[in-house]
Amino acid sequence: MDKPNDIVNLERDILDLQYFPERLQDSYLAEWKAYIKPELIALQRRDEHHNLANIMVNLEQGDNPHFNRLYDVIKTADKVNNSDAVTVMTTPFKSFVNQLLKI
Which own/partner pairs from 81-86 qualify as long-range (CB within 8 Å, at least 24 positions apart)? Predict the structure, then answer.
């Protein structure tokens, strides 16, 4: 999934969602879209059998335990973000950084 020494580490980003679920909506989504689209287009150009529909069918069949684990993390983060019963606790450090960003 990830290229060695690449700027984006999708697996690390996804695993971080366990601790920072707000990143799914705040920053990761746009970054992932920008990163993944060119990769899917390049993959499809290299091999006709790797079109988006085939890739999605293979992933949805659930035959890849690694993908399933990462996908479960994303689904959980999405549930947390969309829950009325969960709020993100702000630490003093996060408040400080947010104040700096407003300057």
Answer: 81/21, 81/22, 81/24, 81/25
